[in-house]
Specification:
The chain contains 64 helices and no strands. With about 1400 residues, it is mainly alpha-helical. Helix 35 runs antiparallel to helix 36. It is extended and about 145 Å long. Keywords: Cell cycle, Cell division, DNA condensation, Mitosis, Nucleus.
Length: about 1400
C-alpha cells in the first residue's frame, strides 16, 4: 500500500481516467500527479513485488481490492510516457523506463486484467522509451551539434537536450538491460498474433537496439563483455517473435529478416562513416545477426527456407559499395549457404550464376564475391539417399562457378572485370582443385543459362498484406529485377583451348587501372602457384607493368615479380627480368616508388649476404655480364642510400672479400667491392684487396673484372702503405706506357693512377705537378708516333689497334693536363679525319690551321676515324679554340660520311659539346636533328635519346623543323625507335595536362606543309638541306603521313580538336578558295591530306565518341553508387556543353567554306570533288539540325547541297555495283580448267527496269565491252554537256516515289544546271527518305578515309535525275574530266 501511495495510483479518480480511455489515449492528460524523489524507488519495489507475488497469487485480484483497475494502470503509464521528451531530466527518463518495465511485467500476469491492459498506443510509447535509452550516451554530441545551428532556428523551435553524466548514462543503460529481459519473457507468454502493428514495432525496436547500442561504449562500461548484452537480448527477442505463438513462421521470418537486412549489409554504418573506416562493432553486429538467422533456420527448418533464401539474395544485391563491407558480407553469406541442405544449396547456386549476368554492375560484383568464397572450399558431395536432377547436380560442381568467373573477366564494366580477376587470384592461391576445374571448364563450352527458370522471388514480401505494406525506408529488390534474370551479351567466354595466360594478359594492359592492378595480382598468384610457367612471355607481361603510368600498379608489379623470384630463386630468366624491371625503378619520379624498390633490392641482395642461405649471387653474376652491365649504375645509387642509412660498413666488405677466392663468385665480389669502396673502407679490407689483385692481375680474367679490380684498387689506395702504393703505381704506369691496356681499361687506369698520386702527396698542387709530368711524357710519345704516321708515305701500313690506343691515351691525358698537349699532336689528330684526295675547297668548312699540302692522302679505316672523332671531342672539352675549328668539321661528317660508326660518334660528341658550347653547336643543330631520320636504326635510336636529353635540360628549344623530325621518329618503322620517341615526347618532354596537345595543335598546319614538301607558301617555308629532303620525304607516302596526323590528333584534348577543325578550314581550305594556294599538282596532296584529316575518326571529340561507345556497349549498365552517379552527371553536362559549342562554332565556320570549295572544284572539274563531298556528307550526318538552321535563309543553296549529296550517294552505289559485277564476271573466267579464249556462259537475271539493250550489253564479252566503253569515252570528250531523255528508266520504276528534277533554264550564268528553280524551292525538304543527312537517332555514320588523288580513278559517267516538277523528262548527263 505504501508503494501504491508513492506511485500516486490512488490519486487517479474516475473523472481523470474515463476521458482519456474513452478517447483511446489520443488526448493529453489534464491532471497532474505529484511524484516525489522516492517515486522511482517505489516503482522498482512495486515491480519486484509484482514478480514475487505473481508466482503465487493473482496480482489483478489484489489490485482490484485496492480499487485499482486496468484503466488506472493504463492512464498512469500513459501519463508518464506521454511526457517523455528530449528535454526530460535523468529522473524523468528513469521513471519512464521503470513505467515501461512495470507495464511489461503486468502484461505477463495471468487473469482477466492482462488482456485488458494492452493498448496499441501505450505499447508504442513503451517501445519509444526503449529507443530513448539507447541514445542517452549521445546526448552530449547532439547538444553540441544543436548549438552550432542555433542561430539558424527560431528560439521557440529550439529544444535543448539534457546533458547526462557518465554515471547517469550507465544507470539508464543497465536499466535497459533489465527491461529487455522482462520484454523477452513477455514475448514468450503474451501473443501478438492479431496485433500486427505492435508486432512490427517490437521488431523495429529490437533492430534499433542492435544498430545503435554501444555507440560510445568505451565511455559507458569498463567491461567489454557487458556491451553485447543488450544486443544478445534483442536477438533473443527477435528469435522469440518467430514462433507459432505470434503468427505464421514464414511471414514472421520474412518480416524479421527484412528489417535485419541493413544490419547485415552494414549500409547504415557505411552511410554514417562518410568514407572513414568502419568500426569493429559494426562487423560484430552483422555477425551476431547472421548467427540469429542460422539459429532460426536450425529451429524451424524448411518453414523459413524461403525467407532465408530471399534474405541471402537481398544481402548480396544491397551490399554497399565498400570493399570491406562486400568482403565481410560475402563471407557471412558463404558460411550460411555452404551449411544449408543440399537441394537448397544447389538451387541457390543456380540463382547465383544467373545473378552474375545481371545488367547492374553492383549485382554482378556481389555475386562474384560470394562465388570466390565458394570456390575456395571443396565441392559438396551428393549423398546416395538424395536424388538430384542433372541441372542441380551440375550446380554442386565448381565448374559452373569458375565458368562464371572466367566469363566475367571479359565483362564490359571495369569494376566487374577487376573483381573477377581478384576472385580468380584468390581461388588460385587458396583453392586446392583449381587446375583440374580450370582445364575441365576450357574443354567444354559454357552452359547457357535460361532467364526464365522458375525461381523463388527474391524480394521480401509483406508479412500480412492485409495489414499494410512495410515502410519504404527498408528498400527491397523486386522480383522483376532479380527473379527473371536476362543474360545480356556483356562478356565473352574464353574459347576452348585458351590458356590461363591468354585470359589474364589482355587485362594487364587495360586502360582502367583497377583492372590492371587486379590482373597483375592474378598473374602473380598464377606464377607463384605454377598455373602459369615463368617463361619469357609471361615475365615480360609482368615486367611491363613495372613501368605503368599509375604509381600503385608499379608498386604492385615490383612486389609481385619479387615474390615470384622468391618462389623460383634459381630461374635464370626470372632473375634477369627482376633486374631489368626493378632496378630502373630506383630513378622513378615518385619518392615512395624509389623507397619501395630500394627496400626490395636490399632484402634480396644486401641482407644475409654472408650466410649460406643467401641466394643473390646468381643475380650479381648477371650484373657482371655485358647484358647486365647497364644496370650496375642503379645498384651504385642504391649503395649510396645504404651508406646514408649506415647500412654499409667494414663488416659487409669483410663478408664480400671472403668470396674473392671463390671461382664462381669472385667477379661478383669484385663488382660489389668496386661499388661499396666508393663509400666505405678500412686498412684490413684494402690489404686483402691488394693481395688478391696481385694474384688475379697475372691471370687471364674477363675485361669486366679487370675494370672492377682497377677501380677498387684506386678507391682503396688511401688505406694502403707507401710501399704498396708504389708497387701498384709502377705496375699501372707500365701497362699504360707499354700499351698493354685495352682501350676499355685506359680510362679506369688513369683514374686509379691519379687517386694513388693524390694519396701519396700532401696537397693538390704537388699531386697536380706529378701528374702533369707523367702526362706530358705520354703526350710527347704520342706526338712522335702520330707525326711519323702522317708524314710517312701512303703505302706505309700501320697498326690500327696501336693508333686507337694512342688516341685514347691522348684523350685521357688531355682532359687532365690540357696545357701539356703539343700543337703538332692536335694537327696530326685532325689530319686523321681527312680522306683520300680531300681538299678544303671541297668541304666549305673552316680550314685547318695546318696547310693541307703537308698531309699525305692516307686510307684511314672507319674505325680509326670514329675513335678519332670521339677523342678529338674530349680534347675540345678543354680547348675552346680547337672546338671552334672542329665543330663545323664534325657537323660536315654528319652530312657527308657514309660510315654509321663515324656519324654516331659525331652525334655523341656534338651533344656533349652542346652543353659546354651551346652557341657554337646551335648553328649545326639542324644537322644533328636530321639524324632522327638516319638510315641507320642505331643512329636514330641514339639521336632520340641524345636530343631528348638536350631538350629536357633546355639546352635547345623546339624551333625550326625539330618537331617535324621528332614526330617522324615517333612514327618510325622500327618499333624500338618509335616507342622510345613516344615515351620521351609524351612522358618526359611534354609531360603535363594539355602540354603535348597544345604544341601539336599550334604546329599541325605546318606539319601538313612540311610533310607534303609544299614550299610555295609565304608563311610555311622551311630551310632544308639535301640530306634532310631525302631522309624526311614522305610526300609520296600517304599512309605514313596519315599515321603522323593520327598520332598528333590522338594526343590532343577536345578543345584543341575543336579549334583545329576551324583552323584547317580557315588556313588551308579557305586559302584554296581565295586563291592564296593555287590548285595544281604541287598542292593537290596538301588539299587531300587536309580533307582526310577532317574526315578521320581521330579528330572527333573524345567525349562524344565515348558517349557513342557507352550507348552501344553499356546501354543497360546503370550507375550503382552515388559517386558514379555524380560523375555520370558531370560527364553528361560536359558532353552537352561541348556538343553545343561544337555544333555552333564548327558548322558556322565550316559549311560556308566547304560549299565554296565544292563549287570551285566542280567548276575546275577536279577529282578532289569526291573528297569534299565525303567530308560534307560527314558534316551533314553529325550536324543535321544545325545545317538546316544555317541554310534556311538560302533555300537555293540548301537544295543544291541536298541534290548533290543524293547524286553522290547514288554514284557511290553504282560504283560498288560495277565492282561487284566485274568481280562476278572475272571469277569464272579465271577458274581452272577453262580453255584460253573461251568465254563461260553466265546466266544472269536482269535487274528490274533494265532495257533489252542494257541486258545485251551486259552479256557482251569483256573485250567487246572494253571497246564500247573506250568509244563512249572518246565521244563524250568531244560532245558538249547535254541532258538526254531517260524515259525508259522512268517507266521501269512506276512505283517509285516521284523525284523532283531540275528544269532547263536560261540563267546558267547565275546558277549551275543542277540547281532547282527558285519558285519550287518550297518543295525541297530534308526528309529522311530522300536526304543524305542522317538523323542522330539513326545508325552511327561511317567515317570514310579519303583516297589519295594518285590512286583515285578517273570519274565515270554520272546518271542524274533532275528535280523538276514542271516536266517528267529523263536525261543522261555526261561530264568531261
Amino acid at each position: 500500500m505504501r508503494a501504491l501511495h508513492d506511485l500516486c495510483l490512488n490519486d487517479l479518480t474516475t473523472e481523470d481516467v474515463e476521458p482519456i480511455c474513452s478517447s483511446e489515449f489520443t488526448e493529453e492528460p489534464d491532471f497532474i500527479l505529484n511524484f516525489t524523489d522516492s517515486t522511482n524507488t517505489s516503482i522498482t519495489q512495486f515491480i519486484q513485488t509484482v514478480k514475487s507475488v505473481g508466482r503465487k497469487k493473482n496480482v489483478w485480484e489484489l489490485l482490484k481490492g485496492d480499487k485499482i483497475t486496468c484503466s488506472h494502470v493504463q492512464v498512469w503509464v500513459f501519463y508518464i510516457l506521454n511526457g517523455l521528451t528530449a528535454a526530460a531530466n535523468y529522473a524523468e527518463k528513469r521513471r519512464a523506463m521503470l513505467a515501461t518495465q512495470l507495464y511489461i511485467v503486468l502484461l505477463q500476469q495471468p487473469g482477466s486484467g492482462g488482456g485488458q491492459l494492452y493498448h496499441p498506443i501505450i505499447y508504442e510509447k513503451m517501445l519509444s522509451s526503449m529507443k530513448m535509452a539507447t541514445e542517452v550516451d549521445t546526448c552530449v554530441a547532439k547538444s553540441k551539434s544543436k548549438k552550432k545551428t542555433s542561430d539558424r532556428r527560431p528560439d521557440d523551435m529550439q529544444e535543448k537536450e539534457t546533458v547526462l553524466t557518465t554515471q547517469q548514462a550507465v544507470s539508464l543503460f543497465e536499466l535497459l538491460t533489465s527491461v529487455l529481459k522482462d520484454f523477452c519473457e513477455m514475448l514468450l507468454v503474451v501473443s501478438l498474433k492479431n496485433r500486427f502493428l505492435s508486432l512490427k514495432q517490437s521488431i523495429e525496436v529490437f533492430v534499433h537496439i542492435i544498430k545503435s547500442t554501444n555507440v560510445q561504449a568505451s565511455s559507458i562500461s569498463e567491461s567489454s563483455s557487458d556491451i553485447f548484452l543488450p544486443i544478445q537480448l534483442a536477438l533473443r527477442g527477435l528469435k522469440s517473435i518467430i514462433s507459432p505463438k505470434h503468427g505464421d513462421i514464414d511471414k514472421l521470418s520474412l518480416l524479421v529478416f527484412r528489417l535485419l537486412m541493413t544490419t547485415i549489409t552494414m549500409r547504415h554504418a557505411v552511410v554514417a562513416s562518410s568514407g572513414k573506416n568502419l568500426p569493429r562493432r559494426v562487423f560484430q553486429q552483422s555477425e551476431a545477426v547472421m548467427d540469429l538467422v542460422s539459429a532460426v533456420y536450425r529451429e524451424h527448418g524448411d518453414k523459413v527456407a524461403h525467407s532465408a533464401r530471399a534474405l541471402m539474395q537481398n544481402v548480396i544485391a544491397q551490399c554497399p559499395e565498400r570493399i570491406e563491407a562486400k568482403n565481410h558480407v560475402s563471407s557471412l553469406v558463404f558460411k550460411f549457404v555452404y551449411n544449408m541442405p543440399l537441394l537448397w544449396y544447389a538451387d541457390f547456386i543456380g540463382w547465383l550464376v544467373r545473378f552474375a549476368c545481371h545488367q547492374k554492375i553492383s549485382y554482378r560484383v556481389g555475386a562474384l564475391s560470394v562465388m570466390g568464397r565458394l570456390l575456395v572450399c571443396s565441392e559438396r558431395p551428393c549423398p546416395e539417399n538424395i536424388s538430384l536432377n542433372e541441372e542441380q547436380a551440375c550446380h554442386l560442381k565448381h565448374k559452373i562457378l569458375l565458368q562464371s568467373v572466367l566469363t566475367a573477366i571479359t565483362d564490359v564494366a571495369p569494376t566487374v572485370r577487376a573483381k573477377a580477376l581478384q576472385v580468380l587470384a584468390d581461388v588460385m592461391d587458396k583453392g586446392t582443385v583449381f587446375a583440374v576445374v580450370f582445364s575441365d571448364v576450357l574443354q567444354n563450352q559454357p552452359m547457357s543459362q535460361s532467364p526464365n527458370k522458375e525461381n523463388v522471388p527474391l524480394h521480401l514480401p509483406d508479412a500480412t498484406p492485409s495489414e499494410g505494406n512495410i515502410e519504404k525506408s527498408y528498400p527491397a529488390v523486386t522480383p522483376a529485377v532479380l527473379n527473371s534474370l536476362p543474360v545480356p551479351s556483356l562478356c565473352e567466354f574464353p574459347s576452348a583451348g585458351s590458356s590461363l595466360l591468354s585470359i589474364i594478359s589482355p587485362r594487364v594492359t587495360e586502360l582502367k587501372f583497377v583492372v590492371r592492378k587486379s590482373a597483375v595480382l592474378a598473374l602473380e598468384v598464377a606464377l607463384c602457384n605454377g598455373y602459369i610457367l615463368a617463361t619469357k612471355g609471361s615475365l615480360d607481361i609482368l615486367s611491363e607493368r613495372c613501368r605503368d603510368p599509375l604509381l600503385s600498379v608499379r608498386k604492385l608489379a615490383i612486389q609481385s615479380i619479387t615474390k615470384v623470384l622468391t618462389i623460383y630463386p634459381d630461374n635464370g630468366k626470372l632473375q634477369k627480368t627482376w633486374v631489368k624491371s626493378l632496378f630502373p625503378s630506383i630513378m622513378d619520379a615518385e619518392t615512395s616508388m624509389q623507397e619501395k624498390a630500394q627496400q626490395l633490392i636490399e632484402n634480396k641482395l644486401l641482407q644475409n649476404i654472408g650466410n649460406e642461405a643467401y641466394n643473390g649471387w646468381d643475380i650479381l653474376n648477371f650484373l657482371v655480364t655485358e647484358e647486365g652491365d647497364p644496370f650496375r649504375g642503379y645498384l651504385q645509387k642504391v649503395a649510396k642510400e645504404w651508406q646514408n642509412q649506415q647500412k654499409l660498413g667494414p663488416n659487409v666488405l669483410k663478408e664480400i672479400s671472403t668470396y674473392l677466392k671463390d671461382k664462381d663468385r669472385k667477379e661478383s665480389a669484385w663488382m660489389l667491392l668496386k661499388i661499396f669502396t666508393l663509400f666505405t673502407g678500412d686498412r684490413k679490407i684494402a690489404n686483402c684487396v691488394f693481395y688478391h689483385w696481385q694474384v688475379e692481375s697475372e691471370m687471364n680474367v674477363s675485361l669486366c673484372m679487370k675494370i672492377d679490380m682497377i677501380n677498387t684498387m684506386g678507391q682503396s689506395a688511401k688505406y694502403l702503405s707507401e710501399e704498396e702504393k708504389q708497387i701498384l703505381l709502377s705496375k699501372l704506369k707500365k701497362q699504360v706506357e707499354t700499351h698493354q691496356c685495352e682501350i676499355q681499361l685506359i680510362g679506369p687506369t688513369f683514374e686509379a693512377i691519379q687517386k694513388i698520386i693524390h694519396s701519396q702527396q700532401n696537397d693538390r698542387m704537388s699531386a697536380k705537378a706529378v701528374s702533369d709530368e707523367w702526362h706530358a711524357q705520354l703526350l710527347n710519345d704520342s706526338d712522335n708516333f702520330f707525326s711519323d704516321i702522317i708524314m710517312t708515305s701512303p703505302q706505309h701500313n700501320f697498326n690500327d689497334s696501336l693508333v686507337i690506343n694512342h688516341l685514347y691515351m691522348v684523350g685521357e691525358a688531355s682532359q687532365r693536363s690540357n696545357e701539356k698537349v703539343p700543337k703538332r699532336l692536335l694537327l696530326s689528330i685532325q689530319a686523321l679525319l681527312t680522306t683520300e684526295g680531300q681538299r678544303p675547297e671541297e668541304t666549305g668548312s673552316q680550314p685547318l690551321s695546318q696547310p693541307w699540302s703537308q698531309f699525305h692522302s692516307t686510307k684511314i679505316s672507319p674505325a680509326i676515324r670514329a675513335h678519332t672523332i670521339f677523342n678529338l671531342g674530349r680534347i675540345c672539352f678543354r680547348n675552346d679554340n680547337l672546338a671552334k675549328k672542329c665543330i663545323p668539321a664534325m657537323a660536315r661528317e654528319l652530312e657527308m660520311c657514309e660510315y654509321e660508326e663515324v656519324r654516331n660518334n659525331v652525334l655523341v660528341v656534338l651533344t656533349d659539346l652542346c652543353v659546354l658550347q651551346t652557341q657554337l653547336v646551335d648553328q649545326h643543330f639542324s644537322a644533328m636533328a636530321t639524324c632522327l631520320g638516319d638510315k641507320s636504326q642505331m643512329i636514330r635510336k641514339h639521336a632520340v635519346i641524345l636530343i631528348s636529353s638536350l631538350l629536357q635540360k633546355e639546352y635547345v628549344k623546339w624551333k625550326g623543323t625539330l618537331l617535324f623530325k621528332y614526330l617522324h621518329a615517333a612514327c618510325d618503322e622500327d618499333l624500338e625507335v618509335q616507342s622510345l620517341a613516344r615515351y620521351f615526347l609524351l612522358e618526359q618532354l611534354l609531360r603535363g595536362p594539355s602540354v603535348a596537345g597544345d604544341l601539336f595543335y599550334r604546329n599541325f598546319v605546318a606539319c601538313l606543309f612540311y610533310y607534303n614538301a609544299y614550299e610555295h607558301h609565304n608563311l610555311h617555308k622551311f630551310a632544308k638541306s639535301d640530306r634532310e629532303k631525302k631522309l624526311f620525304d614522305v610526300s609520296q607516302n600517304f599512309d605514313k603521313r596519315m599515321n603522323l596526323y593520327q598520332f598528333l590528333l590522338i594526343n590532343m584534348a577536345d578543345e584543341h580538336r575543336i579549334n583545329l577543325t576551324g583552323k584547317l578550314c580557315n588556313d588551308v581550305l579557305d586559302a584554296f578558295v581565295e586563291g592564296v594556294i593555287p590548285l595544281n599538282k604541287n598542292s593537290q596532296q596538301l588539299l587531300t591530306d587536309t580533307l582526310s584529316v577532317l574526315c578521320c575518326k581521330e579528330i572527333r571529340l573524345k567525349c562524344l565518341r565515348a558517349r557513342e561507345v557507352e550507348a552501344d556497349i553499356e546501354e543497360e549498365i546503370l550507375p550503382s553508387t552515388q559517386v558514379e552517379q555524380v560523375n555520370a552527371m558531370k560527364q553528361a553536362a560536359k558532353q552537352k556543353l561541348i556538343s553545343q559549342v561544337v555544333k555552333k562554332n564548327l558548322v558556322e565556320n565550316i559549311v560556308p567554306i566547304i560549299i565554296a570549295l565544292k563549287n570551285m572544284l566542280a567548276e575546275k572539274k577536279s577529282p578532289l570533288l569526291k573528297n569534299v563531298m565525303l567530308y560534307l556528307k560527314e558534316v551533314m550526318q553529325e550536324y543535321r539540325t544545325e545545317v538546316q538552321q544555317i541554310l534556311s535563309e538560302d533555300k537555293q543553296l540548301a537544295s543544291e547541297i541536298e541534290f548533290d549529296l543524293k547524286r553522290f550517294d547514288r554514284e557511290e552505289e553504282e560504283a560498288k555495283e560495277a565492282v561487284r559485277r566485274r568481280q562476278s564476271l572475272a571469277a569464272p573466267m579465271s577458274a581452272p580448267g577453262t580453255p584460253a579464249g573461251a568465254r563461260p556462259l553466265l546466266q544472269k537475271t536482269p535487274a528490274a527496269g533494265a532495257t533489252p539493250a542494257t541486258i545485251n550489253r551486259r552479256n557482251l564479252p569483256m573485250n567487246v565491252q572494253a571497246i564500247i566503253n573506250s568509244a563512249r569515252k572518246n565521244q563524250a570528250l568531244r560532245r558538249p554537256l547535254i541532258v538526254e531523255e531517260l524515259s525508259t528508266l522512268a517507266e521501269a520504276a512506276p512505283t517509285a516515289a516521284p523525284t523532283p528534277k531540275t528544269p532547263r533554264q536560261n540563267r546558267a550564268a547565275d546558277r549551275v544546271a543542277s540547281t532547282p528553280d527558285q519558285s519550287h524551292l518550297a518543295n525541297v525538304t530534308f526528309a529522311d527518305d530522300i536526304s543524305a543527312i542522317v538523323a542522330p537517332s539513326q545508325t552511327d555514320p561511317q567515317l570514310v578515309l579519303i583516297q589519295h588523288p594518285e590512286s583515285t580513278p578517273p570519274p565515270r559517267t554520272w546518271n542524274i535525275t533532275s528535280p523538276s516538277p514542271a516536266t517528267r523528262r529523263s536525261g543522261r548527263l555526261r561530264r568531261k574530266t
